């Protein structure tokens, strides 16, 4: 089990195999500062190989998920001069891109619990979650073009999530949409009416995911990420090899035995969430 780092901008709580990661800057609607990016990146680095953590619950403190990037970091970067291969704006932006890629490729199941502002970088995080549950009060937007900048790091992930046609509409017009529209577009999977319903939906998702074998889940997620990027024949050859290995592996043996004995498999023990 990983030792979780001490964080100033995040709240971390682990219950059994579930890590709750809360963006904890409510005074700024959890705007993503460079410190927050660094702390989140450290967390995802540390848990990348930790098979005892099976899911990460991402949410924001104070009724908002994330209002986007921190304007103060932008102002600080403006006061620095580029030089010697360094550009403060580029480096600031690219640091978030590396984080969102980490979240996207994490072997664990990532569940985004979304309320209030889901803007900019927060919108990007929602788009790399494996499951997104939104409250009715959630509002989603890519407002960058209305601020004279571009959604440089999140745009490719938004296209992957909802397709080029809808990504164009949202990004080029800087539209703000509600949870129902976000669900229609495929940004979120479920919209619920209030805080208690959010908690119930999250608990239900956790109950479901612990029925699935952790190594098989991680391997399946990696396989899904390769679809469309690896030639189909090569991908199916590799998938067949992995299938054979999982059938012969501990999880495959336990799953088969549990099915025959009409009992839950060992990995499906109830978690304290």
Describe this structure in words.
The protein has about 270 residues and is of the alpha/beta class. It folds into two domains: about 10-210, 2-enoyl-CoA Hydratase, Chain A, domain 1 (Alpha-Beta Complex), CATH 3.90.226.10; about 215-270, Orthogonal Bundle (Lyase 2-enoyl-coa Hydratase, Chain  A, domain 2), CATH 1.10.12. About 45% of the residues lie in helices and about 15% in strands. The protein has eleven helices and nine strands. It has a six-stranded mixed beta sheet with strand order 1-2-3-4-6-9, sandwiched between helices. Strands 5-7-8 form a three-stranded mixed beta sheet. The two termini are about 15 Å apart.
Furnish the topology, listing elements before pairings.
Blueprint: E1 10-15, E2 18-23, H1 34-47, E3 55-60, H2 71-78, H3 88-105, E4 109-114, E5 117-119, H4 121-127, E6 131-135, E7 139-141, H5 155-162, H6 164-173, E8 176-178, H7 179-185, E9 190-192, H8 195-209, H9 214-226, H10 232-248, H11 250-260
Parallel strand pairs: 2-3, 3-4, 4-6, 5-7, 6-9
Antiparallel strand pairs: 1-2, 7-8
The radius of gyration over CA amounts to: 20 Å
Query: Order of strands in the sheet with the most strands?
Result: 1-2-3-4-6-9
- Looking at CATH, which topology of the largest domain would you report? 2-enoyl-CoA Hydratase, Chain A, domain 1
Major sheet characteristics:
6 strands, mixed
Quick recap of the structure?
The chain is of the alpha/beta class. Helices cover 47% and strands 15% of the residues.
């Amino acid at each position: 089990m990983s030792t979780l780092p001490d964080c100033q901008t995040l709240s971390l709580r682990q219950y059994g195999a579930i890590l709750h990661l809360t963006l904890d800057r409510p005074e700024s609607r959890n705007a993503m500062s460079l410190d927050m990016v660094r702390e989140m990146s450290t967390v995802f680095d540390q848990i990348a190989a930790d098979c005892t953590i099976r899911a990460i619950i991402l949410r924001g403190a104070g009724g908002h998920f994330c209002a986007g990037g921190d304007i103060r970091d932008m102002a600080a970067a403006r006061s620095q001069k580029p030089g010697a291969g360094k550009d403060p704006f580029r480096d600031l932006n690219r640091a978030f891109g590396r984080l969102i890629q980490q979240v996207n490729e994490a072997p664990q199941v990532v569940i985004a619990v979304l309320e209030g502002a889901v803007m900019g970088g927060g919108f990007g995080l929602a788009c790399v979650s494996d499951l997104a549950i939104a409250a009715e009060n959630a509002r989603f937007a890519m407002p960058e073009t209305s601020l004279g900048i571009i959604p440089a790091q999140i745009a490719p992930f938004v296209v992957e999530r909802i397709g080029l046609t809808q990504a164009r509409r949202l990004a080029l017009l800087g539209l703000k949409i509600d949870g129902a529209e976000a669900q229609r577009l495929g940004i979120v999977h479920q919209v619920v009416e209030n805080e208690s319903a959010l908690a119930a939906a999250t608990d239900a998702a956790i109950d479901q995911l612990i029925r699935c074998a952790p190594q098989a889940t991680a391997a399946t997620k990696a396989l899904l990420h390769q679809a469309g990027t690896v030639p189909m024949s090569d991908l199916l050859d590799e998938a067949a090899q992995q299938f054979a290995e999982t059938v012969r592996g501990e999880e495959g043996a336990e799953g088969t035995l549990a099915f025959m004995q009409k009992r839950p498999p060992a990995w499906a023990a109830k978690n304290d969430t």
